[in-house]
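Reopening closed ticket. The problem is back. First fold of the pair:
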Amino acid sequence: MTANSIQDEVKAKYGQAALRIATDGGGSCCGGAPCGSDAITANLYDDTQTAQLPAAAVQASLGCGNPTALAQLHPGDVVLDLGSGGGIDVLLSARRVGPTGKAYGLDMTDEMLALARKNQASSGINNVEFLKGELEAIPLPDNSVDVIISNCVINLSGDKDRALREAFRVLKPGGRFAVSDVVVRGQVPAAIRRSMELWVGCIAGALEENEFKAKLSAAGFADVSIDPTRVYNIEDAREFLSAASIDVAAIAPQVEGKFASAFVRARKPLQS
């Protein structure tokens, strides 16, 4: 798959998800399961967080983690959410940085941007701005952001090196990269990996964790760390794999514990 074809698929899939949520309040995530009901998207946000937000923002959460719970956000920070979708992480971040801070959401899908802006209007949160653009060409100036968050979106990029370089560019010196994403832990046969990625990330290109670290370092980041937050087992994916005519028992030893949601941290050096 080329970078452009991946981008087209991602746009189509998440555009459809946004329209479903906007029209009937429902979405479908990986393997056809309703969003929030499967091993990937379930129980990522607690009730104290979701109670503050429009229901559509919660329903449009198609991520694999909760970066707002793990990122260190402070009043006055400028935060950028890469692949902001329906806006849940942007709105939560905006509350945490307060009126002296700002939260940007970046998405390339018109339908998701429309849904996010509707959710912002319903929430009454004003220190938010949603931008149309791509991870590989962020429409913000150099050294303009304190913290970058993202929720299971880096794996969808067709050019991860460029996306990480862009993240580095827009961060202020000392700025923090704090994202949730899917990672692969160790080696998995290519055919099996593709099937599991389709389940874990809908349309995914998850990096092996050491490769992710290497790409962050190559982009200029320091203090890189990856901490798994939810490790998936073969039972989590059984229904999806069986529907794809894959012998679950046969592949289990090659897959068990190899795919995980993780919190990825890094920092832009003060001098780079």
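Second fold of the pair, where the issue appears:
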Amino acid sequence: MPRIVSFLPAATEITYALGAGADLVGRSYECDYPPQVRLLPVVSKPALPLEGLSQREIDRAVAAHLATGESLYLVDEVLLDELRPDLVFAQDLCQVCAPSGNELSRALRDMSQPPQVLSLTPRNLAEIAENILAIGDATGRNEAARKLVEESHDRIQRVIAAVGESPPRCVTFLEWTEPLFCGGHWVPEMVAAAGGEDPLGQPGADSQRITWDDVAASEPEMLIVAPCGYGLKEAIAVANRLPRITDAEVYAVDANAYFARPGPRVAEGVELLAHLFHPDRFEWPHQHQPWTRIG
């Protein structure tokens, strides 16, 4: 079986979902689900001390650091070499989400036995499915990957069938709030599948800065507050500080689990949104509640 180091939280989740978690020998600092992955050695961590900073402070610190040309992540090259991975999961989609580009390439080039690298850069739901299949192929879990893709597709189709006859709810999905960023990549597709419409969303593309004037002009019925990298508790704190510029209902959600990571839980994220948008059409089928209404 391959020895795997994952620099990408979504790839780590997929690996466990396919039954290949025992093949992982190292992880990034952000790889924290499922909980047992936290026992693995950490091969990369953020270069900036961001804990305790506000969203605006984080945005400024990240922008200033990126302007220097330096990476936002530090790779432990010695540990990486000691772990002797056969396979590395990486990405080239977002400099803020995980190691990418020069720092990872340099670390891998200097290894005594450079591993195979599987780069995962999904921009929509179809490409997330392709990533699952690619990890299944790389780990020898092809059948498990095929089943996971089919199950996720079927869950989303059930949502679409349940809410399809209802008028879409006009929503604004916020991936960050100081400054404001709209939903991008796969998120607008999730919103649409759940029976919503986000005029500010960027399907298949990077999220973009928006203003409160943009939000007000779109006249949303609902605001979904899902700061990238934040769990529910942190999202609630952020949502409680937002200005009330419209009559829209405001919901904080667990972005880290269901929206920021392109992995197995995106189907549950679609179910979550469908229940918020159309509770009379789609009941929440799980015991936990990863959202809170604000106000």
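Update: turned out to be a display glitch only; the data is intact. The mean pLDDT is 91. The CA atoms of residues 11 and 89 lie 7 Å apart. Please close again.
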